[in-house]
Specification:
mainly alpha, 4 helices, disordered C terminus
Length: about 210
């Protein structure tokens, strides 16, 4: 295999390993740290930039392999139509050329196709992590709000209880004031009657003495 096709095969293997790592069922915290590193690391950014350039060359190799496969197929069909029956060596040479052309086309084509799938999967996983992070924050905020609502309800119940007790105390105080006024009126009336009685009794005694 030629050197650039060997490098293309290594790139394809690396893409397969990376895809397996992306779709591996990892815990949310580990996956979040992994994708944060991949999206924020400057080294990963430089590697991604180099890979984009390499994919351009892989695309050129794919077009070249596709054209070569069509050319080999056309040459084989033309040779069969002219010569009729071919010898074993020519047929073997043609089969080998066709095999190498197809191998190179499939190798470069799968590398490009997997790069598209890998890119799309990466951004889907980023969106999934962002959505899960937002869900965790929303769940925490909802829980805090629920606790605050429960605390407010408890406070409201306490305030209502205190208002009820205050109203009862005020009613008792009014009743006490009413009883106090009635007792004071009765005491004043008793003093008035006692004074009149004393005055009447004292006047009668004076008349009898006369």
């Amino acid at each position: 295999m030629v050197l650039y096709y060997t490098l293309t095969f290594c790139l394809l293997a690396a893409e397969m390993v990376t895809f397996c790592l992306l779709v591996m069922p990892l815990p949310f915290a580990v996956r979040k740290k992994l994708f944060s590193f991949l999206s924020e690391s400057p080294v990963v950014g430089k590697i991604a930039y180099a890979l984009k350039i390499s994919f351009i060359f892989v695309g050129i190799l794919f077009i070249d392999a596709l054209q070569r496969m069509f050319r080999v197929t056309a040459e084989g069909d033309l040779a069969r139509s002219k010569d009729g029956v071919q010898d074993v060596r020519t047929e073997t040479n043609y089969a080998a050329r066709k095999f190498y052309a197809q191998r190179n086309m499939y190798l470069t084509g799968f590398t490009l196709f997997l790069s598209l799938i890998l890119t799309r999967t990466y951004y889907i996983m980023l969106d999934l992590n962002h959505t899960q992070d937002e869900y965790a924050k929303l769940k925490k905020a909802t829980s805090a709000q629920s606790r605050a609502n429960i605390a407010n309800n408890n406070q409201a119940n306490d305030v209502a209880t205190l208002k009820t007790k205050l109203a009862e105390l005020e009613a008792k105080e009014r009743d006490f004031e009413t009883l106090k006024k009635q007792a004071q009126q009765q005491a004043d009336e008793y003093d008035r009657l006692a004074t009149k009685y004393n005055e009447a009794t004292g006047s009668n005694s004076n008349k009898k003495a006369d």
